[in-house]
Structures are given as structure tokens and as C-alpha cells.
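Annotated sample (chain length 542).
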Amino acid sequence: MKSLYPLCFALCFLIVNRAQAQTPDWSTSVASIIYNNCTKCHNSTGIAPFSLESYHQAVNYSNLIPSYINNRTMPPWPPDPTYRHYVNERVLTQGQIDTINAWVNGGTPEGDENLAPPVPVFRNTAVLGPADLTLQIPTYTSTATNADDYACFVLPLDIPNDKYVKAVQILPGNPKIVHHVILMIDTTANMTNADCMLALANLPGSNSAVTLTSYAAGMGPTVFPSGEGGLKMGERLKKGSNIMVQIHYPLGTAGQVDSTKILFYLYSDSAAEAPNPPLRTLAVSLYTMNWLISIPPNTVQTITATYPSLYNIPYPGASTPMDYSLFAVDPHMHLVGRQMTSFGVTPNNDTIPFERVLNWQYAWQAYYFFHNLIKLPSGSVIHGTATYDNTTNNPYNPFNPPQTISAGENTTNEMMLIAFMMMPYETGDENYNMDSLVNLAIAGYPPPSATGITNISTGDAGFALFPNPSSGGQFTLTPSNLKGGTTEVTITNILGETIKAVHYDNLDAPVSINIEGQADGLYLVQLKQGNYTAIQKLVISK
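Output written by the structure step:
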């Protein structure tokens, strides 16, 4: 009888090798996920406490990464994606989470380092190019020694007449210490730095302070559709106003210096006065809020609020009831807030979900821009529900032992505020794909890497991409009417960050390119051959 040991050994060998072959490696599977979702904050100049810019750095923190991604603490994205989707979400798919877990559990193999994507370069620069108007806060030194520092700055808006904003980028002077920024406009030009902290509280009953946009760590510019697809939107900068800038410097940043800039990209006067298509002006005019908050110690309390009907909205120029289109939602609470939900109920009793945050984190908040404009019929009621945990079970509770917490502007007070960016409804608004239009608008600006481009193409000029949209990041680039020769193909995301760069000695036939693992959205594919340069837009849509 022949021994079974050789057969058993061979089977074991095959099983082990198959398991090893199925383990994702850094170079071909994990790096692209980390670079696209984590490294925007986890880089040498970012606000995160450590960098994830290389294989070795990722291995050093591989014992921490799974727990944060499995409970979806990271990447930071408070809204529940099962309730409502937004433009450019920072959310890992379950498949991406499984890949990282399998990589860690499989021993964090590197794989072939030559197959790894290039490390993205994160520049603290104007990703949309030179701005039309730049404002800058005075040089400021953080005082956040024992508590967070919330500083306010009032900047005069010196413009000859009203202007309309098509994009704005908040550019931190020191990205390591600027956690978030709230940008407002004071149309009376008489509010002081001290008034700035109260500006949000004054918004519902006053036309003097209007929120323009906000910035949080890892965010790019706020860009409005500027004509692509027939939709042109913007915000108004009123002549004689002041810009108010509220900046959060986190605990432990004391002594470090910042000088944040605000970059405005404006429509020309002719485009604003006689636009084609018409310019739709946005306003922040819907507020669901409750100022009767009083949360006793050692209690968990749920508070509700409604906005009765849309014809009471103080929208500029509105005197009669009308339907509205909602563009973005901004929920706001402080430290003991744990959950917040908002939704609309139409006169026909249809429910429209806006946002739901199941694990509120005061440190991560911003405007969330809807995938599609949301039609809210006249007479609808907006509902908000917020839950506060004023017990020792809440790790963010500012008091130990807990104390009664009431409504107020201080961080140790509480707020319930849900604001909306909106405009009067026009037929077909709900059919606009804001993901596509916002990203197309961004692509309309020359990225930093496009300096000196002699030909920018959005059609079949020089090469074609197929399929486009790509469902997974793999596509074929087919050259046409090119002479061949040394060619560089570079793929960048909407922030101008390089995702992949490929060199070909003689590109004269179709080539397959893979950027699998990238988030859904718009990318730019640039081809350079000799003195010829062309760019095409690539959409990834899973």
C-alpha cells in the first residue's frame, strides 16, 4: 500500500498557496483604497495624527485600521448612506472594507511594488487655478492649550458692485491645525469679531448674516454647476458687505500659526446680468431649529422641531408661496448630541428624507450636497429630531460629573439647527444629476498639472476611452490620428491629484488601463505625445 503522506503534503501545499494567492496585497488592491479615501488627511501636511503615504506606514498602523473602518468611524462621514446619498461621499464600500480586513489578516503582504499606484501629491494650493478674488485672515496664533480655539475674523469685501460666486475654496494657511471653517457674509458690514460667534444664532431672524459654505479637513472646493447641462447656479456677494470667517483650531495646537485664505471664483458681470442659461441664485433660508433646549444631567433626551410652511421662508424677492429646490443640508449640534434626522412631509403626506446621522461627531460637520436637487412643494413641513446624551456614557460630554446643558453658542452649550441651501423650483430640477454637473464644472477649470496644454478635448481628438462611464475603473484607451512615439498618460481626480501615470515608448494601439478602487466620480485623462496634449473626462460609476 502506497503512503498517503506525499498526497496529503501536496494537497496542503496547494491549499496554502491558494490561500496566499487570494490574500489581497498592498500594491494591487489596498494602496488605491487608502490613497483615495484616507491619505487626504493622513499625509505629512494633513490634520490627521499620522501619515498613510507608503506601504510601511500602513503596516505600522495596520493593527488600528480595521477597527476604525469596520465601525465606520473612518473615513469620517457622519450621514447614514442608507438614508440619503450626497455628492462626493467619503464612504468605503463593504467590498473595500473586506479587502483591507483580508490584507491585515493575511499578514499585510506588499506584493510587487512596481505595480503600486503612485503616491498622491497633496498640495495646499488653489486646485481650480488663480482666483478672481482672494481674502486672507491676519496671521493668527492658536490658543488651544486646554480647550479648542474657535476664532473669528471679519474681512471687508471690497468689490465695486454685487458679484456672483460660481466656486469657492477655503485654503488653510496651516492644514495641520485648521480643522473646520464656516464662511458667512454680513450684509450690514457692522458685525464685529465678537459678533461672529453669535452669527449663526442670528441667521433665522436676520438678513444680515448668510452662510456661504464651510470647510472640513479633507474637503475640496465648493463648486456650483456653471452652465453644463443647462444649469447655472451661484451665490450672491453683496457690495459693501463683510466676509466673516469662523475657524476651529483643535486642542493641542496652541502656539502654531495660521493665515487661511478664501478664494472666490466669480461669474463675469455679463454672465451674471445676462446669463445663458439663466443664473439661479442660491440662498440659505430654511431652518429647522429648537432654542428651548435644557438637558438635565444623567439623562438622554430627544428634541424635535418643525418648519411650518414654505411660504414663510424669507427667500430674497419671494412674496408668494412657491415650490423650492434643495441643494444641500447642514445639520448642527454640539458635544452631547448623538443623533439627528431631518425630513420633509409634503401636503400629500409624502415623506422626503434629507439626512440622518446615527453617530454624531462634533468634530466632523459640513454641508452635504444632494445627488439630485430635491423638490419641496409649497406647504410642506420640515421635521427635525435630535437626541442628546448628557450622561457619563457619552465620551464627548464636556462635564464630569454631567451638568444641565442649555441652548447657546458656546461649545459647552447645545444647539439644534438644520439649515438648507435652496432656490425657487423650476420644472425638471429634480432630474439634474448634481454629481455629474458639479464634477463637470470642476473639470472646466484647468488643473495645476494642465499648465501649457495646447489642446483640451472632450471629444474624440487624439484618443478615445471605452467604456465611459467605467463600472470598475478599468478602461481601454484607443489612440486615433496620432503619430506614435513616446507618450505619457496621466489620470487625475477632481482635486488635481495624480491617481496614475503611465509611460509608453510607442503608443500606436489600444492599451488597457486600470484605476480600480477609486471612488465614483469624474476623472481627467491627459495624454501627452511630443508637443501634443489632450484631455478627456472619464466617469467611474459602479
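Annotation: Residues 70 and 94 are 9 Å apart (CA to CA).
Annotation: The mean pLDDT is 81.
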